[in-house]
Fold this sequence. Notes:
This protein is an alpha/beta fold.
Amino acid sequence: MSNIHVIIMCDSYKKNINHLKTLFNSFDITVLSEKEIISKKSLLSYDEYKEKYNYLQALKMARLDDRPCLIIKNTSLCLLNPDDLKNYILDVLNMDIDLCFLCTWQDECHKYINDTTHVKWTQHSHATQAILYKTNHSKKSIYKFLYESKSSLSSSIKYNIHQLKAIVFTPNIIHFDISQATSNEDYHKVNCCLPVPISAKPINTTNNAAWIIIIMIFIVLLAVLVPYFRHSNKL
């Protein structure tokens, strides 16, 4: 038995399954087909609710196993060969972490904390394309966050991930397959990072003080010269 369990979340299109099976051929693989939702009691859209529901099913399965578990969507691609990918995964499992994002999108990358060349510490990542859960604590925590939250899958993770020891690969080692985009939001998944907010330009207090002095001198000159010219005109 492999020391890592890989759960491939499979949508109705079933693309990339063989590609992912080849990538993770040295690990135990389970293909979990998504379920359609007949009805929902949520303010989330149908797609958001279905995504969250099916991810909870994957986590429920992962919690039954004490081994580290990678939950990956079949909309994933990887440019690495199987051996290199395996080595990257085994390397991070030697670190003191709860979980690892193999893919990120629309992230606040400027807030990462350096660790090694390939991974950074994060407290705000939310991409659910491929997440490696090292500990049972991380599986149970994320399951609890999702179950109790009324937000979408990504938002639920983003606002609770700071409670876990999480890292990200930089650059990504797993990528969203853009050919499987079905919404405008999907096209944003090719961008790993959000633009860095531009701080307001600092005020140049030296120049401001100079202008104030010039204006004050001008006012004083006017106060002196106006009465003088009035007196001259009277003469």
